[in-house]
C-alpha cells in the first residue's frame, strides 16, 4: 500500500467507488427497471396460442424487417367498459380506504406521539405487530366475521338490531374494511414519525398567544405533519389500487378492481399482452402518486 | 385532589384502532380451538385442527420452502440494501443517483401485480435468450423477493446511517484507514441493529408474499401463502385458523423479545449518560 503513489491510490479509490455504486444499480436495473420495458414491449405484441403466448415485435423475412406494433390491446381496453369500470372502481375504493385510514390513523398516531415516553415503543410495536403476521390470514379473518352466517351478523341478530342477516361479504364495504385493516399500520407509522418530531414549544407558544386548540391544530400541527400525511396516504393508496388478494377474498362481482382483472387475464385467459397493457395503463395512472411519494421519500433519505 | 380526567378524543381513537387491529386476530385464535368444522358456530374446545395441520404434508412442505426462500432472500437483500443505503447517504453526487433512489423507493409502493408480471416477463425472455432460467421455481422467487426486500432494507439502513455520528468515520479516515476497512470496522458495527431489523423485515415480507411468488413460480415450488390462498379461496377452514394462531404466536414472541432487547439497551444508554453527567 505504502509503495503506491498518491495518483495510483486515488485511481484505486475511484474504481472501488464505482464498483460499490454499480452493485445495487445493476441489480435493480436488471430486475426492476428492465422488466417494465418488457411489459411495454409485450403490451404491444399480439396474443398467440404459443409458449410463451405472444407474437414477436420484429420479424425478418424476404430481406425486409417487419416491425409489428400492435395497439389493439390498448384499444381493446378502451372499447370494453369492463376495464374502464375496473380502473374507476379501483381508484374509488382505494381513495375511500385511504381516507378512512387517515381519519382513523391520524388520531391514533397523535395519541401515540403524546403518550408517555416509556409507552411509545410498546404502542409502536403493538401497531406494527399485525403487519408482521400474515397479510393473507388477516384478510381471511374478515371472511369469518362478515359472511351472512358470520360473527358480526350473529351478534347483531342476537342483539335484536336486525332481523335478517345483512349482506356484507362481497360488497365494497367488505373490500374497504379489508384494505383499511391491512394497510392501517403503514398509515400510522409515518404519521407517528412526523408527530414525534413536532416541537412541543411551538404548541405551547401558540397556546400562550391565546390560540384555541382547534386553531393550533389547523395552523401548526397539521401543516407540520403534512409530510407524514402524504407518505402514509401514498403507502396506502398506490398498493390498494392494484390490490388483488382483498377484492378476490372479500369482494364480489360488483366490486371490480383492476388488480383482480389483471390476474384473471393472465392466469385464467392466458392473455399476456392484454395483462401487460392493463399493467402499463395502471402504471401510467399511478405515475403521479408514485413520483409524489418518491420526492417526499428522497427528501427524507437525503436529509 | 386531582379530578379524574375524561380521556381525550385521540386516546379513545387509539384504543378503538388497537381493538380494530386485534379483535379479528383474536377471533382467529379462539376459533382455531373450535370442535366444529364451521368457523362461525362454537361446538366446544378441541385441538384436533392442530393435529390435522401437522399431518398436512403439503402445508409442511410449503412452510419449509417459504422459510428457505425467505432466509436467502433476506440475507441477500441485507447485502444489497445496505450497499444501496451507504451509496446514497455517503457518496455525495454521482451519475445514476436519481435512478438509484427512484429504484429504491418505487418498489415500496409498486402494486404487486405489476412487479410480479414484469419479473415473470423478464424471466421468460431471459430463458428464450440465454436458456436460463430453464424452469421457474425457488431461484426465480428468490431473485424477485431479494429485489423488493432490498428496497425496504435500504430505507431502514439509510435512516440509521443518517443518524450515525459521522465524525467517527472521518476520524478513522484521517488516521489513514482505507475506506473499505473503515466501513467494516467502524460503520458496520454501529449500524448492526439496523441490519438485524432490516433482515427481519425482509424475512417477514418474503414469507408473506403471495402475488409476486405466484407470478414467478413454476410448477415445482409452492410457497406457504400459495397453499394457504388456494385453500382459503374455497372458504373458511379451521386448519388455516390453527396455522394463523401459530404464526401470531411466533410473531408475538419475537416482538416481545425485540421489545425486551430494545428496552435493555435503552436503559443501559440512559445509565451511561447518567453516569457521565454525574462525573462532571
Automatic annotation (TrEMBL), chain A:
Signal peptide bounds: none
Family in the record: Belongs to the binding-protein-dependent transport system permease family. CysTW subfamily.
One Pfam family of this chain: BPD_transp_1
UniProt-recorded name of the protein: ABC transporter permease subunit
Entry annotated with the keyword NADP: no
Membrane topology qualifier: Multi-pass membrane protein
Keyword Transport in annotation: yes
Organism listed in the record: Vreelandella malpeensis
Keywords: Cell membrane, Membrane, Transmembrane, Transmembrane helix, Transport
Record's subcellular location: Cell membrane
Major location category of this protein: membrane
Spans traversing the lipid bilayer: 20-40, 85-109, 121-143, 173-195, 216-241, 272-293
CDD domains per record: TM_PBP2
Domain of life of the source: Bacteria
Domain ABC transmembrane type-1 intervals: 87-293
Amino acid at each position: 500500500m505504502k509503495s503506491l503513489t498518491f495518483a495510483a491510490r486515488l485511481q484505486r479509490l475511484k474504481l472501488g467507488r464505482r464498483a460499490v455504486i454499480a452493485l445495487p444499480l445493476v441489480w435493480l436495473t436488471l430486475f426492476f427497471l428492465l422488466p417494465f420495458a418488457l411489459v411495454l414491449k409485450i403490451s404491444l405484441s399480439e396474443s398467440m396460442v404459443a409458449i410463451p403466448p405472444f407474437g414477436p415485435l420484429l420479424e425478418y423475412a424476404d430481406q425486409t424487417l417487419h416491425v409489428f406494433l400492435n395497439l389493439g390491446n390498448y384499444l381493446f381496453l378502451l372499447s370494453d367498459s369492463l376495464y374502464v369500470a375496473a380502473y374507476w372502481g379501483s381508484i374509488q375504493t382505494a381513495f375511500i380506504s385511504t381516507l378512512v385510514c387517515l381519519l382513523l390513523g391520524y388520531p391514533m398516531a397523535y395519541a401515540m406521539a403524546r403518550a408517555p415516553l416509556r409507552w411509545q415503543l410498546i404502542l409502536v410495536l403493538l401497531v406494527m405487530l399485525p403487519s408482521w403476521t400474515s397479510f393473507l390470514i388477516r384478510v381471511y379473518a374478515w371472511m369469518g366475521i362478515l359472511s351472512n352466517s358470520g360473527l358480526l351478523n350473529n351478534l347483531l341478530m342476537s342483539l335484536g338490531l336486525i332481523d335478517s342477516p345483512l349482506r356484507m361479504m362481497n360488497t365494497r364495504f367488505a373490500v374497504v374494511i379489508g384494505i383499511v385493516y391491512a394497510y392501517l399500520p403503514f398509515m400510522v407509522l409515518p404519521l407517528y414519525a412526523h408527530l414525534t418530531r413536532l416541537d412541543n414549544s411551538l404548541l405551547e407558544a401558540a397556546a400562550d398567544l391565546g390560540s384555541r386548540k382547534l386553531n393550533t391544530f389547523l395552523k401548526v400541527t397539521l401543516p407540520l405533519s403534512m409530510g407524514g400525511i402524504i407518505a402514509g396516504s401514498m403507502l396506502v393508496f398506490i398498493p390498494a389500487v392494484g390490490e388483488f388478494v382483498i377484492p378476490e377474498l372479500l369482494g364480489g362481482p360488483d366490486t371490480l378492481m383492476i388488480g383482480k382483472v389483471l390476474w384473471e387475464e393472465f392466469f385464467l385467459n392466458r392473455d399476456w399482452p392484454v395483462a401487460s397493457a392493463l399493467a402499463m395503463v395502471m402504471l401510467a395512472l399511478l405515475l403521479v402518486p408514485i413520483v409524489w411519494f418518491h420526492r417526499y421519500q428522497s427528501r427524507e433519505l437525503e436529509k | 385532589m386531582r379530578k379524574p380526567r375524561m380521556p381525550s378524543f385521540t386516546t379513545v381513537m387509539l384504543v378503538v384502532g388497537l381493538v380494530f387491529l386485534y379483535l379479528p386476530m383474536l377471533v382467529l385464535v379462539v376459533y382455531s380451538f373450535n370442535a366444529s368444522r364451521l368457523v362461525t358456530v362454537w361446538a366446544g374446545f378441541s385441538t384436533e385442527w392442530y393435529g390435522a395441520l401437522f399431518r398436512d404434508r403439503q402445508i409442511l412442505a410449503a412452510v419449509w420452502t417459504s422459510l428457505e426462500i425467505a432466509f436467502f432472500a433476506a440475507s441477500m437483500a441485507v447485502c444489497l440494501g445496505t450497499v444501496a443505503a451507504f451509496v446514497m447517504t455517503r457518496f455525495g453526487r454521482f451519475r445514476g443517483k436519481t435512478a438509484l433512489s427512484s429504484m429504491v423507493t418505487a418498489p415500496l409502493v409498486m402494486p404487486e401485480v405489476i412487479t410480479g408480471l414484469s419479473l415473470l416477463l423478464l424471466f421468460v425472455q431471459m430463458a428464450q435468450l440465454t436458456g436460463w432460467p430453464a424452469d421457474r421455481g425457488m431461484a426465480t422467487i428468490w431473485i424477485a423477493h431479494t429485489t423488493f426486500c432490498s428496497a425496504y432494507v435500504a430505507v431502514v439502513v439509510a435512516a440509521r446511517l443518517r443518524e450515525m455520528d459521522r465524525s467517527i468515520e472521518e476520524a478513522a479516515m484521517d488516521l489513514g484507514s482505507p475506506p473499505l476497512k473503515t466501513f467494516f470496522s467502524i460503520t458496520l458495527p454501529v449500524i448492526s441493529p439496523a441490519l438485524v431489523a432490516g433482515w427481519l423485515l425482509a424475512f417477514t415480507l418474503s414469507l408473506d408474499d403471495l402475488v409476486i411468488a405466484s407470478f414467478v413460480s413454476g410448477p415445482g415450488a409452492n410457497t406457504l401463502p400459495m397453499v394457504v390462498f388456494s385453500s382459503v379461496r374455497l372458504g373458511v377452514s379451521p386448519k388455516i385458523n390453527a396455522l394463523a394462531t401459530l404464526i401470531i404466536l411466533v410473531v408475538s414472541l419475537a416482538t416481545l423479545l425485540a421489545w425486551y432487547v430494545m428496552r435493555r439497551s435503552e436503559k443501559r444508554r440512559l445509565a451511561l449518560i447518567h453516569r457521565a453527567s454525574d462525573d462532571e
